[in-house]
Task: structure prediction
Amino acid sequence: MVLPDPDFYIGTYMKKRSEPSKYRFPGEDEHKRIFPIYTPIMSLNRIFGACGGTHKCMYDYELLEKALDKAGFDSISQQSFMEGDDAELLIDLKERSHESFYVEAIA
Result:
């Protein structure tokens, strides 16, 4: 699985609050074109479900591991970009690897 990395996004949010011109969120410029006002929290909302985002919930590894375990998955492990046992599932884009985290689980 490939998910947005909350450590990256929350870290960027915190840095952007203290030095707004130095840090940028992925997709920030597009977001600013769509909405007439912008603050850094809007980028978090966009990524994690609100404001047109595609994800409906924020997961970190700890929460995802517990949810997968409860659902009956075994061998749950955090992976790195393009690592895992099934090559057909290694589909993320290199340019997104810094903002994603990767988990492999076997049912």
The chain has one domain: 2-106. Residues 2-106 form one domain. The mean pLDDT is 84.
